[in-house]
Design goal:
0% strand; 94 residues; mainly alpha
Amino acid sequence: MSEARKKAEAENAACDFLLDLMLESDMPEERKVGLHIMKAARNLHEAISNIVGEYADPTKEVPYETAKQVAEYLGLVHTGIMQFMETQNNQCTE
């Protein structure tokens, strides 16, 4: 593993640790919402990175139908997030 990769993993672990500490604190729940969003986004990013590593590596043999299903699912996730953001933006401008 490269030094840059080790450093990135250490930084990610530290960030996760701090997020968990802040979420466990006695901070009011209303102020923790952003932390929950950040944690969920970090988890989603990690899951997508794992998917990319598993299914997008041209040196690995992945069944075509499986890869096609993964691509379709990721497209649906993206569409859902974009629709949610559009809905939120429309509510803010009304």
